[in-house]
Structure formats: C-alpha cells, structure tokens
Amino acid sequence: MSTPVLSTTALTKRYGKHTALAEATLDIPAGRIVGLVGPNGAGKSTLLALASGLIRPTSGRIEVLGRTPAADSAQLADVGFVAQDTPVYAGLSVADHLSLGEHLNPTWDDAFARDRIARLGLDPAKKAGRLSGGQKAQLALTIAAAKRPRLLIFDEPVAALDPLARRAFLQNLMEFVAELEVSVILSSHLIGDVERVCDHLIVLAESRVQVAGDIEDLLAAHHRLVGPRGTLDALPDGVKVIAADHTDRQTTLIVHDTTGDHLELPGADSVGLEDMVLTYLHRAEGLTAPTLQETRA
Description:
- This protein is an alpha/beta fold.
- The chain has two domains: about 5-205, 3-Layer(aba) Sandwich (Rossmann fold), CATH 3.40.50.300; about 215-295, no CATH class.
- About 35% of the residues lie in helices and about 30% in strands.
- The chain contains ten helices and 13 strands.
- The protein has helices spanning about 45-50, 75, 95-105, 110-120, 135-145, 165-180, 190-195, 215-220, 275-285, 290-295, and strands at about 5-15, 20-30, 35, 60-65, 80, 150-155, 185-190, 200-205, 210-215, 220-230, 240-245, 250-255, 270.
- Residues about 290-295 have low confidence and may be disordered.
- It comes from Glycomyces algeriensis.
- One of its GO terms (molecular function) is ATP binding.
- This is ABC transporter ATP-binding protein.
- Pfam families: ABC_tran.
C-alpha cells in the first residue's frame, strides 16, 4: 500500500484563544486531486500551511508523504506550494523567476519550465508585475510543477481569475497530474471547479472537518429521503441525518449512509455534489442535524 499523501490525527492549530483548526483527522491516498472546500475562516489556509510546513501544529499529528512537513530539504523538494493570489515577484522577469526556481530547488526541471513558458507565449524578459492575473497564475503553476514534486498544494489559486483564465489553469493542472504523476490539494470556494477536476473532497467549516472521502464514494453514500411526516422516524443503524426539513404533511431528510454497505433506503434520491457540500456548510453554521427523537417531535 502506498504512503498517504496527507495523514493527520486530531490536528489542531490555535492562535492565542482562537482555534483555526480543531481535531482534524484525515487520511488522503496518493494520486488524488483533492478539493478542499469551505467558507472564509473555516481553516483551509491553516491546514495547507501546516501541510507545507509554514506553521507548526498546536497539538495532534500531521505527516505529508510519510514525513513531518518541511523536515529537511528533500521533503521540501517533494512539495510544491502556491499561496493565495498566486504570488510572484513583480520586479522580477519571467526568466528571473525560472533562474530563482533553479537556484532554490535541487530537483528543478529547467527544460520543462522553459518549454512550458514558451508554449504559454510568455515573454521571458517581461516583468511579472506586468502580467495578467491568468499569466501570473500560469507562471506560479509552472514554477511549482518544475520542482517535480510529489505533491502540489494550491490555496485558492483561481479565485481572482476570470472564467477563461480559470478554465485554462485547471486544464493545465489536470495535464500536469497526468504527466508528472503528482498528487494535488486544491483549496477553492467554487464547487463547480472542484466537481470538474477533483476526485477527493474535504469539507471544512467552523474549523472542523465536516466530511471527507473520495467524491464517488461520498455521492453514493448521501441520499435525499422524502416521505409523509412520521414515516422516516426509524432509519437503519449507521444512517446519519445531516439535515431535516418538515412541513405539516411531509419530511425531507439528507442522510449519510456510513455503513459502507450501500443500504437500500426506500424512496431515496441521489444528492449532487453542490447540494451535499452546502448541506454540511449550512449545518455547521448552526442548524444542527436533528436526532431521530427530535424528528419525531
């Protein structure tokens, strides 16, 4: 069995009295494109900073590619990290960025970087500060990929891009995954982008992991149940109510079958990725899923 790309147990990060991430337990297999979804302040950037070794946990355990993040130069070389707003140095040219990347990274693939810059049509002499948002994002992606890492981490890389630049970035990202055989963790507010490129999902809200797993498995395990009020009170063991809505005559439930047995639930309909994510976010903001006893009331 291959080493998980990211493994955490009760991972917690506090800043004074503020808890940025609480008790996060995750186990992400290698080879996945992971979508990390949640509102502002949910803990996404904190988790990615912990994974990249920029900060240390307050408590709990984290391993990236089987080792402590930023343990040494070899571990650093295995991880490519692009922070929010795809940061580049405005006063440096495109060529300067490639030279700096080569100087700082022992596994740098200069031929790959220069070929990609040429294919993108970027002028090596042009200052990064004069590039468009999409071009800056592509430059940052090129530098991260040219390290030849085993893991690429992106913190909201496309949030500020227009739809065409965002599509081009995500298309290139998928190409890199196929070409470089690299795992990816991608933080995003845009569920549509996650649905398009990701095969694994982590939903963070209120500093806690709400749900995580392969997207195909999660969608197969979440259902919408609709029935006359009172007929959905007794659910099988292992079926958790995530959200409930009642009228005088009808009950609608969103449920998660945690048994792994793909239980046959009468009247069950599938739940789309956006509906599933929004249900968890809605619940985390204060509308806690009811117990069965509360449902009967």
